[in-house]
Amino acid sequence: MKSIFITIILTTLSFTVLAQTDRDKSEILKTLHDFETAIIDSDSMKAENLLDTQARIVEGSQIENKEEYLSHHFYSDGRFLSAMDREVISQDVFVNGNTAWVTSKSHLSGVYNDRDLSLNSMELIVLKKTENTWRIAAVHWSSDPN
What we know:
Elements: H1 2-40, H2 44-50, E1 51-59, E2 62-65, H3 66-71, H4 73-83, E3 84-96, E4 99-112, E5 115-130, E6 133-145
Parallel strand pairs: 1-6
Antiparallel strand pairs: 1-2, 3-4, 4-5, 5-6
Helix pairs in contact: 1-2, 1-4
């Protein structure tokens, strides 16, 4: 009888943890989608709310803090992403407590600055959960011609 009771408790806890992880993953992916939309729409206020105060953005040969990114590369990234079609090849979400990271591989194609582009893109985004909200703490984007 005691082992049945323990089995029931462990099974219930397992389902609770899995449901919580699935909810976290869903919220994380929504945060990333909202961030991409904010960039495309040049909505710096929305992007600012999604980025952690200490966020770092690594792109090309630069590392920018939140303020630097929102006042500089943010708008050119928006123009670029608006011109591209993005096909996500793979995306993995990892959650460990209040920290998460997402790795994505995508293919970007389109015309930007009068040039036909076909790029393979890699993305690593680190998020942290504060006050039940996932915020983007770090972004690393890189791409290579296809």
